[in-house]
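User: Predict the structure for this protein chain, please.
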Amino acid sequence: MTTILDRTAPRDPAAELPARLSLTPKTTLAGRLDGAWWPYSRDLEAELPPLAAALEEPWGRVTRVTVNPTRWPVVPHTVAMDGRTLHVGWFTEQNPDTLILLSYTVGRWDLLVIPPETAPAAAARLMAAAAIPGSVLTAGVLMANEAAIGRGIRDTVRGEATWESEGGACMSPFGSPMGRSALPMPGNGWR
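Assistant: Here is the predicted structure, written as structure tokens:
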């Protein structure tokens, strides 16, 4: 059996995969963010159509998007989407970790943009935090908090690895591992 692969046709993984979104539930509590979006890449032309399509039912038709260009290598002026055009603008004053979506009839939504290279556990924490109704935390604060949590987790793992590499040995006050014979003997003489 012969299989023919067309290597000239571009393969777009973002178009094949659903948008990774976490939206704030509809409530009277207004917060700083309306949810979070975790794109698969930094290619806005590939990432925006699945995002806008996923938001059409809960929010209505998205007509414009604004980003900060520091996180996106290319910011196209327009993106073709299902026979219509999505207009894209950029502002250096906008928080680099947000995406603003606009609609002529429904309004504005601000989403936290989680970098594509983010670990799944960190992305899950960020998506949950950004979708809390009435939260006053900004995108910058959420990203800084996650960086601190990530450092704490890395430090804990590093400490556990050090503990294991030393055989779980106790450390002397001088920083060197203490052998079992250096531990004080309990009153019954057993170690």
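Residues 139-165 form the longest helix (27 residues).
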